[in-house]
Write a structure and sequence with these properties.
Number of helices: 14
Bound molecules: adenosine-5'-triphosphate, iron/sulfur cluster, magnesium ion
Strand content: 15-25%
Radius of gyration: 22 Å
Strand order of the largest sheet: 6-7-8-3-9-10-12-11
Distance between the termini: 58 Å
Order of helices and strands: HHEEEHEEHEHHHHHEHEHEEHHHEE
Shape: globular
Length: 371
Amino acid sequence: MTLSDDRSRLGSPAVTELPEDVTIATEEGRRLAEQLADNRRHARKLLEVRNLSTQFFTRDGVVHAVDDVSFEVDYGETLGLVGESGCGKSVTALSLTRLVPNPPGKIVSGEIILDGINLLKLSSEEMRLLRGKKIGFIFQDPMTSLNPTLTIGYQIAESARMHLRLSRKDADERAVELLSKVGIPRSRDRMRDYPHQFSGGMRQRVMIAIALACDPMLLLADEPTTALDVTIQAQILELIRSLSEEFGTAVILITHDLGIAAGMCQRVNVMYAGRIVETGMVDDIFETPQMPYAWGLLDSLPRLDEQKGARLRTIEGLPPDLIDPADECRFSPRCTYARDVCRQKEPQLTDRVGERHAARCWGTEPGGWIQ
Ligand SMILES: Nc1ncnc2c1ncn2[C@@H]1O[C@H](COP(=O)(O)OP(=O)(O)OP(=O)(O)O)[C@@H](O)[C@H]1O
Ligand code: SF4
Ligand SMILES: [Mg+2]
């Protein structure tokens, strides 16, 4: 198929994906993908995740780390992914980039459509090209992501050179510009320095510069500030927010801290035991949470009106084992409102009052026993 063959089909809103016989590994395919992306930009979501399941095949059994998860991200939106340790936040992010360690991990089902391209249908090489160009990452610990033997300047410029096909000189200029944008003083001089010559906060700024070097459409930030002290944490979050506004980049912000999500995100997905248990606009989640687990997370937030020195409430008990989970509400062993039905069948995510607000709870469904 040639580009001109396909031009007539491009005008049709029904064309939403790259035709199967066209690959983005070719120049023609890339142009076609760009045109399709333009076609869809105003009508579609940037990211559509449908029924995604990722499992780990271990000696003890199959870990259902991400279990039938569906969500969307709008162009330019910041979506929070929150939940306790082990609920599947990072495995969701790894799945979106197809970086789940295999073995033992595997995406076993679902669809991940980024800007109209079904990522699970791409070859490894196509995925590698797309990863740098369309998706940027920031991880919790920059030391594990930065190469200690290469200069900071090289690491930023390399990314721009590879994915934007810039000359060495232009890529270096872009690196200097990005370093100064992320708040590194004397950026031109610091290009020659190595990661160990930067403080923790500065390394995280460098990671942000690398992530943005290719002007990605989506930034995945997995606990980007947990290792930093509170002041630096606030600065880094503000930097992510202002850069995403400036570049129009959508962000998936992964955090176990609902307070951070409240300050940064337009919408929030609450995850528990591999499932999304509540999703909604940030105000709906904070003002009218519909799921006892979300209440628990909110209760464990420090409040301004709380007496100084008061102990934070925590959610009693531990999340369940994700090996072959039973057909029940996964929060039921810890939920003080649980009834028999909760232990007999798992509730679905059902719509609640509020924009795109849904929750997974028998008790708070219309007619349920929690009002
Ligand atoms: N390589 C692996 N092998 C087996 N199980 C794994 C592997 N990686 C993750 N898991 C399991 O997948 C589940 C989800 O883990 P994940 O790392 O996504 O949690 P998380 O929500 O990011 O937690 P945290 O807040 O601690 O980072 C956990 O039960 C974890 O034990
Ligand atoms: S479904 Fe039942 S056990 Fe689960 S959160 Fe709701 S009330 Fe609690
Ligand atoms: Mg994690």
